[in-house]
Description:
There is one protein chain. The protein is an alpha+beta fold. It has two domains: 319 residues, Collagenase (Catalytic Domain) (3-Layer(aba) Sandwich), CATH 3.40.390; 162 residues, Neutral endopeptidase , domain2 (Neutral endopeptidase, domain 2, Orthogonal Bundle). The protein is built from 28 helices and eleven strands. The strands form four sheets. The protein has a four-stranded mixed β-sheet. Strands 6-8-7 form a three-stranded mixed β-sheet, with helices on one face. A two-stranded antiparallel sheet has the order 1-11. 46% of the residues are buried. The chain binds zinc ion. The site of zinc ion has 4 residues, from helix 22 and helix 24.
Amino acid sequence: MRLIRFFLLVIVCSVAAFAQPAPVGIETADLNRSASPCNDFYEYSNGAWRAANPIPATMDRWSRRWAAGEANKDQLKVILEEASGKRDLPKGSVDQLIGDYYAACMDESRVNQAGATPIKPLLADIDAIKDQASLQRMLLRFAGLGIQVPFGVNAASDNHNPSQVIADVQAAGLGLPDRDYYLKTEERFQQARAQYLVHVANMFRLAGYSEADSRKAADQVMQFETALAKATLDNVARRDPQAVDHKTTYAQLQQLTPHFDWDGYYKDANLPRINLNVQEPKFMEEVDRQLSTATLPDWKVYLTWQLLHGSAPYLSQPFVQENFNFYEKTLGGVGELKPRWKQCAESADQFLGEALGRDYVARYFPPEAKARAQEMVKNILAAMGDTINGLDWMTPDTKKKAMEKIASFNVKVGYPDKWKDYSHVVITRTSYFDDVMAGAQFGINDDRSTIGKPVDRGRWGMTPPTSNAYYNPLLNEIVFPAGILQPPAFSVKATDAVNYGAIGVVIGHEISHGFDDQGAQFDSTGRLNNWWTADDLKKFQAKTACVVKQFDGYYIEPNIHHNGKLVLGESIGDLAGVKIAYLAFQKSQQGKPAAPVLDGFTPDQQFFIAWGQFRGDETRPETQRLMVQGDPHPVAKFRVIGPLSNFPPFASAFSCKPDSAMVRPAAQRCVVW
Ligand SMILES: [Zn+2]
């Protein structure tokens, strides 16, 4: 069935080509021709665009790709404004939900007039906590509202039986990005702690606390969270699937945290008492210790802070601004808040994503984009198969398992076949905060409802307008929302070289996640299960060690470099992604007339330039620091030059000399797949 569809599409495309104008190549105006492609391909491929397009004050990074992601929100605005202009729609209809949600959010004077009023009842309840029982009741209520502190319980596929959904207990409840921010002594962390104390105090002041009480509360919060932070894994450790895999019975969960009322929690959340996973047992021991030793006043201050923190973006302007000032301005270097309409569009996408997304794809996602992307995925998966088959270092036993994994990839393109049903969510124009809570509750209940059931493979982890993609190792699936299937990633008008160099590498990247340092630990069924012979695994690990070393050597500032182990999975994804997209591109041209030289660039050159232009972000220095510390993705510059400098066809395409900066010497060249 599928094959027939692909076949038909090929015919339709080639017929249509006669009637269409010449295909579009790379963006020649974006090139900085004064830079050498062999010295700094990042600068060469997109330097002129970055020079002409400084990062807008509202953004932490910028490129054609990020601009396209923001343009998606302009489209959401059209949909939301139209829906909010309609009245008397049937309750629970898509347009009623998204229209009233947007209208309530845009009614800034009402939101501002309310100030902290929407959270007053919750604040009063926190204040009324008088014993362990009432404290724990509050934790349940928080969890039901999506404020998961100090831990979260979410649905996840069972690592050991991935066709089944179980509960997954995760460490949470820290206001700073990760443990290092609480514990490390480097100046940048000390500075962040000092700024965090000021921010927490500011939030308490906005909620009506006195100056002295606010400062005291900030100190208490810092102390409380530092104790929790000490018990968490760091960002590198957490990337190891084995390190967060602790299958536990319900009885063991109770033994792990004897002071926590799991019976109450499970009853409140309507969860079945089946086996579950506890990602970080040490953290849960610390939570239990806090339950038995921390004073009620300390807990109350902590919960008050977490409520203020979680609610701030949906309260009045001073809260929104203060929250922005710390998390985006101070930590990320962003200059100013996005306009209100965009905050509202992003919020609607977050909480009513598949209602809004339904309208979005109907209006803005052409079916031919889906068909062509599906064809590319098929070709690039085949290229991964060819690559694995051709490996000289892997034994037939391991190869067979790898090929099974390729054959069982699930591919999702565009949008879900079945949409979530929001019809019973109550959204009105009277209180934006209540609408957000209703949306959050829907999300929590929707998630919880899957626990204890077989996996529903139709569910999506991103909304349709999202300009991004993902791989899920437990489902062995790659997912490309409609929001990324547009220029500069993809265009039905672009040459194959440009499409394969941009969205093709993204597709290759996601496929390769199935075979990165994490993904390679999951088998074709999504089970966390070693399918490698010991010897092959050793060879694979030696190959990945090369990538760790390469990225350890990439500096964003004189003393701050990437952590190769943190960015390993993403860097393997880029390295293998470039290779298999390139191979698929080559293969796609067989039997066709030679692809044209466009604007003076050969098809191979177009392919590599397309990657440099798609990936060509300019990133604020503060955001680069955040990324180096906590983001498994390297900053854009190294995602361009890192993989290409390991890839001989790149050097050939631009006739680079062997001693060029963009050509790693053969002895240092990393090849994983
Ligand atoms: Zn990735």
